[in-house]
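Entry 14. Two folds queued back to back today. First construct below, sequence then structure tokens.
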Amino acid sequence: MARPSHDEMTHDTAGAPRENLPPPDQEMQALLHFLSQQQASDLHLKSGFAPIVRIGGHLRRIQGPPLPENDYIEQMLMPMVPPGRGQELERTGGVDFSVRIDTGDRFRINLFRASGHTHAAIRRVQSKIPSFESLQLPDVYRQTIEHTYEGLIIVSGVTGSGKSSTLAAMLGWINEHRSMHVITIEDPIEFVFTPNK
């Protein structure tokens, strides 16, 4: 898979002096737009390696030079970190947040430190609230939400199995069919709901 063809994206990072690299924020924007255009679900950034995307469930390395083994990835993403959250990376070794780009696409970003370098795992978040039908969930999911007014419902599964989408479908159903106040506690916020009742 070819690297995005922006002028900013055609750089040689192997031993390149700092001034020859594209501005990190421009490279990040180009990669996020590339994710949107390719309908990729994930982007993995690791120091010393070319970016990797997941398209249709398959991981593919983007052709091009590796990302530098310095603070380049951190510089790519720190301008996007919400105010007051930047110190979290220093304090805990990781920070989770979400961003929206000019295409309207939203991304959940996990910026973390490992092996002395900063890396990132980025997932494109669907902006449309899914329904039970669009997710092809068994009717028991709708019936459970329809007949439950209190208690605890646990949705679990491996990464990429649809936990967030399933919860969004549940909340979407509640938003359409009930007049009630709903509070979600999540970090980062993935799906944004507009009250319908």
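Second construct, same run, same settings:
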Amino acid sequence: MNQIVNKYIKELDSIYIKYEKTITRLTNMEIDILTIRSIKLKKEDIYIGNISEIYEIGNTIGVKVKKQFLGKTIKAILNHGFISFKLKKNLIEVNKRIKPKYKCEIKLNIKEKIEQFKIKTRLIVLRFKKEIKIKLGVKFKIKNELEIIRRKVSLQVKELSKRL
């Protein structure tokens, strides 16, 4: 596993979206976020379409998107431990059984490179070049370049590399 992790650290372009099996309170979230090169999905997701690579690290699955599709809007649905992953215009689809309870929708509007992205327990620390908006029941704005957003759900985002 360390070899796999090191491989993606060297590539300096992988970001993890890692979450626990139980999502209890998150209902609807829209994130306008900057350039993301790799999206991590739950294990055993099936996938079709223009995905260049799929790999597993620990209890997460990563889908490597072909470079020509970067910059598109990615829509991911987290649903009680399952995920549905779809790239705009049906270029990529990853689907799995979806349970109706605890539906969570994440929109990633890919614009620019993330300057810094790190995680603390239940506190997500974001540092961006531009202001973004996060909707989690209520709209939040990231002021200036740094803001800490408190979350009641165990959704973790982790960056393997120090810089993208």
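Quick look at the second one. The CA atoms of residues 73 and 88 lie 5 Å apart. Confidence is low (pLDDT under 50) at residues 1-164.
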